[in-house]
Amino acid sequence: MIRILHLLLLLLAFESSLCFGQLSFQISNYEKPVDGAGNQNWDISSDGDQRIFIANNYGLLVLKNTNAQLFGTQRQTIFRSVAFLDNRIYTGSFEDFGYWAPDNNEGLKYTSLAARLDNPDMNNDAIWKIVKHEGNIYFHSFGSIYGFDGENVFRLSTSGTYMFLYKIEDKVYTQRVGNGLFTLEGNEFIPIEGSGFLENEEIRSLIKLRDGNLMIASTDGLYRFDGNNFSELNFEGSEELIQNEVNVITQTPDKIIIGTILNGLYIFDQDFNLLENITTDDQLENDTILSLEADDFGNIWVGMDRGLAYIAFDTPLQNYTGSNNDIGSVYAASLFENELYIGTNQGIYWYKKDSNGNFFDRKLIPGSQGQVWFLEKFDGKLYGGLNDGTYLISDKSLSKVSDISGGYTLKSYPQNNQDVLLQSTYSDLVVYKKVQNRWQQSHTLSGFRTPARFMEFDHLGNIWLGHTVKGIYQLQPDISLTTINNIWEPGSEAGLVESTNRVFKFDGRIFTSFSDSLYEWDHVNKTFITYSGLDPFFTTSGTIKNILPAGNHRYWVIKDSEINLFEIHFNSVKLLYTLIPGMYGLEMVEGYESIIQIDDDIHLISLDDGFVVLDLDKINRSKYPRSDVEIESLIASNANGNQLEIRSELSSKEYALSNSYSNISLSWSSTQTVGNQAFFQYKLNGLNTDWSDWSPENSTRFERLLPGSYTFQVRSIGANGVITDTTNVFFTIGLPWYLTKGAYLFYLLIALSLAFMIRLYISRKQWRKLGKELEEKHKKAQRDREKAEKEIIKLTNEKLQNEIEHKSAQLASNTMAMMRKNNLLTSLKEELDRQKKELGKKMPSSYYNKINKLIEQGIEDEHEWEVFEQLYDQAHGDFFKRLKEKHPQLTPSDLRLCAYLRMNLSSKEIAPLLNISVRGVEERRYRLRKRLDISTDVNLTELIMTF
User: Fold this and answer.
1) pLDDT of residue 811 exceeding 70
2) In what order do the strands lie in the sheet with 699-702?
């Protein structure tokens, strides 16, 4: 199926506005389709499939689907012309011309043909037109015309200045300044006979009309040429065209589109009946038209001095807003006697209707100024509810039928076979009865007074009201419809968990709405229950604002961001059409959203600045091919800004991305948009389950996605109200290195190692603890042993001390005994010596000698010394042994003297022990000093005490 590029209408960076006129058209304005593009768009061409090529101030602008690219040359000159010929894109600019071919990077590469000229100096020539004729491509400038035969580039031998170059069927036309028309034959231009009258005019454009004649537009007039003769072309509006300076002309099978320098576009049918003048008043960006290009669907691209536009004709939506339809906010409408009546906050307007279904010649009904709440037909008559009462509308005048202010709504009451109407107002419920074939106020229902905008009746005759503030009421009137028998205000006990004042009726049942849900009245159980029959068809969240009948079991369901047309019958629900208000810049009246069926398939959407007429039959007859969404690219990037871009087979493969590339950008485009913006919805399964809001944005970015599998889904909606199938992209974000199988194996090894080390640590700790316990036990045992040993040593020492003390005592005692004995024996010896001396011979010598010997033996008793020595060693730790080891030169007498000195005995005390005199003791002490080799300044006793 061939895809036509005009179906691209939304580019992400476009500034877009929409306008619909009585011709039923819509405009998409694009100030700058891509960054870097210029304002002026001099020429437009298409490849008949998917691309539009535009000669822009700053290069070649290529539109594909909903994307745009700008290509420039090294010379960076203004592009004046473009033509898609023989599968090539030819462009012309200042002093250059050439062609573009695809490169390996999905872009275009430029080849200059001007560089091949024998003399490449183009003398300030700019290429304004490009045509193909007899196998050659011709490039037109004011000074020269160049040709390209596929191999060689040449310059035609021409003279003069050529104003244009047009190819119409098999002929090429031009005009030489100061001359008339010429045709190209071979490589020469031949003048057309009879065209000389144009020598003082500048021809701006040529087209071939449906009757085969040429239409010629010049600066001074419009002409027809039948191949032989020229004649003026006059029709209603031709003078206005000449005054506004025709610049370019194109045509579709049923229209002639003329672009002017001063006043935008003029749209004529093929019989030159003016259909529309599209200007900046209709939200066209600029009134100076530089280029036009018609597509296969009868729509046109418009290049302007400032901006680019796409205009789609015969669209389902016809707009009556803006400065040309300044009627205020619309609340009501009715098609009555082939005229359209509109109720607004300014009054009641009426429009005439032409044979094409367009509305024109708007007028305000006198006396209707002010707020209008409803317009309804009953029994062939039209009634309107105004701020100051209710009126019959007849012959464009008002006749009051009720004085009660603020008639919100008027409906036929279906119960008890009563022929009555019931009306909700600012205060009362009003009963109308027919009087002389017209409805008049009869009375008000007593027992209830409150303003109620919403009013519906159930099958039991109960009246359901939606108070403007307080909520919902159910009223039970009496049979005569004169009073209210019962008033019930349902609340939480009836399933209403939130306050709401909206009451709807469809398929014979009562409904209300709040939050994101719709609730149905269950009259058996006297409660509201959740109704989910419409939920699968909604594409956005939000409260249902209104539900309105559309005929033949069809109902409009209005939400904040979408409007749906359903067919509902016996619980069978079918979605017929979806309208996204944001696609068309539609702003409905907040709190009073309404769509009114004014004819079989004609519905009026009330807006806060006018209204839109929707023709469902045009949607059903839509000639545009089905659109799809194509994923343009997936770009994965990491924290360092490195990117991985994927462009091919995005919808048929699953892409595995490493964890570091967790920032994902996606872009997409619609293959078809019908003269207006394409809106998109997307979601990322694996991250969220809710669809995004409808938006013209065709790209998105997800940052720091967690590891896992993801499915990106995107869909679009076009003017046919059909939501496309979902386009899917599958990709996975890998686990970070620390969560991979290898990492887990590493963690397992680490865990096992840690477990082993912990076990080893615990074991070692236990061993250390056990070791410490054993060591403590050992130390305790050691301490106990040491304590015991110390105790033993102490006891031993005490024992030894005691023994030493005992030995010392014995020694002292023995010494004293020896001293006493020796003293006694010495005294005896002295006495014996004295007696011997006194007695002389009287004492026998033998007796004397014997006694003296015994005394001497007693004094020098060796046994006694041995006992003393033994006791002394025991008391003083082998004193003699140690002394002899150190001083072996000592004699036994010296040893005895040392022993007595250690006992700290004086010389006087020592003398008897040695059986010598005190002087002898001193002499021995002297000799001992010499043997010990000590000086006189050393205390002998203290020295001996050290042993």
Assistant:
1) no
2) 643-646, 629-637, 663-670, 699-702
- How far apart, in whole angstroms, are the C-alpha atoms of residue 922 and residue 911? 9
Beta bridge partners of 111: 99
C-alpha to C-alpha distance for 298 and 253, rounded to whole angstroms: 7
pLDDT for 219 beyond 50:
yes
**What's the CA dihedral at 755, 756, 760, 761 to 10 degrees?**
-30
438-444 and 429-435 strand pairing:
antiparallel
Following CA atoms 618, 621, 625, 631 in sequence, which dihedral angle do they give, to the nearest 10 degrees?
50
Paired sense of beta strands 699-702 and 629-637, if any: unpaired
Q: Is the pLDDT of residue 563 over 90?
A: yes
Structure tokens at 137: 């491509």
Dihedral angle over CA of 102, 104, 110, 113, nearest 10: -80
Binning pLDDT at 50, 70 and 90, where does residue 483 land? Answer: very high
Q: Name which of 284, 285, 268 is nearest 276 in CA terms.
A: 268
For residue 269, give every residue at least 6 positions away whose Cβ sits within 8 Å of its Cβ, in sequence order, or none: 254, 255, 256, 275
How far, in Å, CA of 83 to CA of 72, rounded? 16
The 679-685 sheet, strands edge to edge = 654-657, 727-733, 708-717, 679-685
Cα–Cα dist 679/547, whole Å:
24
Architecture label for domain 5-315: 7 Propeller (2.130)
Element (H, E) at 191: strand 188-191
Parallel, antiparallel, or unpaired for β 265-269 and 274-278? Answer: antiparallel
Q: What is the pLDDT of residues 491-541, one digit of tens each?
A: 889 988 778 889 999 999 999 998 888 999 999 999 999 999 999 999 998
Q: What is the pLDDT of residue 813?
A: 61
Cα torsion for 104, 39, 307, 300, to the nearest 10°? -50
Give the tokens for residue 219. Answer: 């600066």
Contact (Cβ atoms closer than 8 angstroms) between residue 82 and residue 53: yes
Token pair in block for residue 106: 């999905």
pLDDT digits (tens, 9 = 90+) for 108-151: 999 999 888 877 677 788 999 999 999 999 999 988 899 999 99
Average pLDDT over residues 199-228: 93
The one-character DSSP state at 187 is T
**Residue partners of 429: CB distance under 8 A and separation at least 6:** 422, 423, 444, 445, 448, 452, 463, 465, 475, 484
Question: Which long-range contacts (C-beta less than 8 Å, at least 24 apart) are formed by 364-369?
Answer: 365/393, 365/396, 365/397, 365/398, 366/396, 366/397, 366/398, 367/397, 367/398, 368/398
Q: Do 125 and 143 contact (CB within 8 A), yes or no? A: yes
Task: Judge whether 250 and 298 are in contact, CB under 8 Å.
Answer: no
pLDDT in tens, 738-750: 888 888 898 888 8
Is there a common fold for 5-315 and 329-550?
yes
Q: Please, what CATH class does the domain formed by 329-550 belong to? A: mainly beta
**DSSP class of residue 180?**
-
The domain spans of the chain are 5-315, 329-550, 629-734, 740-866, 878-947
User: Average of pLDDT values for 648-673?
Assistant: 81
Tokens read off for 671: 């293959």
Query: Which is the CATH superfamily of the domain at 629-734?
Result: Immunoglobulins (2.60.40.10)
Regarding beta strands 654-657 and 727-733, do their DSSP bridges make them parallel or antiparallel, or are they unpaired? parallel
pLDDT in tens, 311-322: 988 788 888 887
What percent of the chain has pLDDT above 70? 91
Alpha helices in 142-281 (DSSP H): 238-243
The CATH number for 878-947, chosen from 3.30.420.10, 1.10.1740.10, 1.10.10.10, 3.40.50.300, is 1.10.10.10
Q: Can you tell me which residue has the tokens 């080891």? A: 885
